[in-house]
Amino acid sequence: MIFNSIEFLLFAISFFLLWPFLGKRQLTRWAFITGASFFFYGWWDWRFLFLILASGLIDYFCALAIENRPKKRKLFFVLSLVGNLGALSVFKYSKFFATVLEDGFAQFNYQIDLVEKIPEFALILPVGISFYTFQSLSYTIDVYRGRLKATRNILHFFSYLSMFPQLVAGPIIRAKDFLAQLNRYRITNAIEKWNAIKMIAFGLFQKMVIADNLSLFIDSAFEGKSGFDGTGYWWLVMVAFSFQIYADFSGYSLIARGLSKYMGYHFRMNFNHPYLSKSLREFWTRWHISLSTWFRDYVYIALGGSQRGVVMGLIVLAITMMLSGLWHGAKYTFLMWAAIHVVLLIFERLTKWTRLFRKSPLLIPIIFIQATVAWVYFRAENMDQGHGIVKKLFTYNGSELEFSRVYFDSIFFLGLAILIEVMVYFRKNYTQIKIWYWRSNLDIVLVSLAIISILFLRGEGKQFIYFQF
Amino acid sequence: MQAKRKIWMMSCLTTVLVVVVKLSLPAPIKNTELRNEFWLRKTYAQPIYDLVVGGDSRIYRGVSTHAINEELSPQLEAINLGYSSAGYNQEYLDFLVGRLSPTGNKILVLGVSPHSFTLEGAKNELYHKHLDKGSFDLFKGLYLSKYLKHFAPYKASELKDYLFNGSAQEVYFEDFQDDGWVHSYRLPEDSLTAIDIYRKLFTDYQVSDTLISNFLVQVAEIEASGIEIVAFRPPTFDMMTDLENSLSGYSESYMWKEMELRGCTWIDLDPSEFHTYDGSHLHFESAQKLSRIIGRQVKFLLDSKQ
Predict the structure, then answer these.
(1) Could you report the predicted ipTM of this complex, rounded to two decimals?
(2) pLDDT value at position A218?
(3) Which domains can be identified in chain B, with CATH numbers?
(4) Predicted confidence band at B200 (pLDDT cuts at 50, 70, 90)?
(5) Least CA distance to A413: which residue of chain B?
(6) Nearest CB neighbour to A6, from listed B140, B154, B157
């Protein structure tokens, strides 16, 4: 069940009609959230429920055991890690690891056939597995580190783990932030409701109007169906993809935040206009913030961060980024995407070049171009396609503009997406504009326009890109 | 301003804007809800028809059963069950035959184009796509689409044309009719549009002899069961007909002869009397003309039975 569907609209209406009645008492609230979330998730394929149940049960009992049996806490912690990462390895990485091994042996003229031997069930990727696995893991890690008390109530735990607004594509919420919120029932006031409506409307606008209208242009280019191949064409395709993935994922996060806000809960911001960053480091503090901070807290800092000298700091940074690449998918292209970021981040950290031009707005397009070139591999079907597109971006290959007529619709929405970011830039940087924005109640008009655009300008409904992770 | 008042103002403004859009703009050229409902109604059609039309996109754009009925008195319960790239295999023919009423006149009209005998056609992807839909998608397509169709989206280029030129300049007009026909035309017209696509298509896929021989066996069985088959090759642009004759491996004369041998009625059509908008599909006026020719043939068949 995806947010931009009629089934979800019916589901959400039913949920919010029942919420004031079933949300008040603690146990019924947790049972209601868990039941509704399982229904939401099982809508894709009810068999996926077994995995989230198994993953959740392991962590629930391991966390209790870590607290109750201090002498064996390490054993239960390892059990939780093995359970979660094991499930992730089987369902997400088995084919990739098998291919890597096959390729490795092939280098020494040994032909082995591992991919064929993977059981069929392991080739199915349950929706959102990386999101809830990381969420579940953070719970046991925090309990193990003594930063969080394990919850005794299994429904309390599952209402945290399976919370439907963020279950399949984040933001990845932390147990120490959210379990306490789940303890209480709050009657949302009008301001919270208005903010929730704004988030949902803007999120749906980003997804259904911007991202979905860009997809035809991008998909036809990557599938080789467009017939255009010039340098300008490929730059525009990649800029469009940068905005598509941003609008798609940021849209999902905004809707998730809006839904939870309407319930009276607060999720932290997951995207903060990353394409307005003036350094790649800043980009990573604005893009998929819940994942970046997860890796920062549980990998980067756990490995020593920058406390162990410059070289070790860079090595830890590289490891963290590469793991982040692998988190996105079991493909060489994701590793390549991460590797480009590693190189650029290391260069930035060593030279500190962005600090020299800190005040110049020109840094924004420069950082955007860096991110855009890296996105080539994120979107490419394979490494060869990625290399080919990068080559096309940096070697002149004609300047035909016929594509702008054929893909007028997509290019129009790309222009709109860029315009919105430019307006946000001015609003953030010019106090007068900011004051005028708030005083003029422009948000009423913007929400209305967003809803009208969703109704009458939406693109062809597509699944959210991040569901595949 | 208070948040509560903001919510009310936003709701009112949105309602006003929806009314303004609905009143000031013509219906969008493409309506996915209507299209979805159209295909689902075909796929889940009941066995109540006297006359069923089968074939590929040349048929669902090229044959209107309303126009067939203009030639008939009394009129027949009729439906066009053509699908994009439909191919004649056992499953599709069973589907067509299965929609005929056991107590009706039992007439099957088959558009026999070269593509409907390729392995690509035999996959019947569009038919399966709709047949395999889940129960909620079915519910949505069959019962909610009548409400959702009012919120069909526009394309930005469409709005640009309305604003600056008063009407759409580049249009693939499709009006999904309740008899399974799609009333179609295209602006600007270009009879060469489909030529390259079909050239590539018939380089990759040839007409399959196995599919043709299986089809002829099934045709004989259908005729033997008391169902009358009327068949024809859907007319196309001359260049397209020549291209298909030379590249696809399809022989119209062979098909004509073999079908007549099995008791079918073959309608011989002169492609030059029809007009396509893209080289492959008939302009709606030609589609109605073709349908009336079929209607006259069906009338003759029914009269001779009596």
Answers:
(1) 0.83
(2) 94
(3) 27-305 (3.40.50.1110)
(4) confident
(5) B156
(6) B140
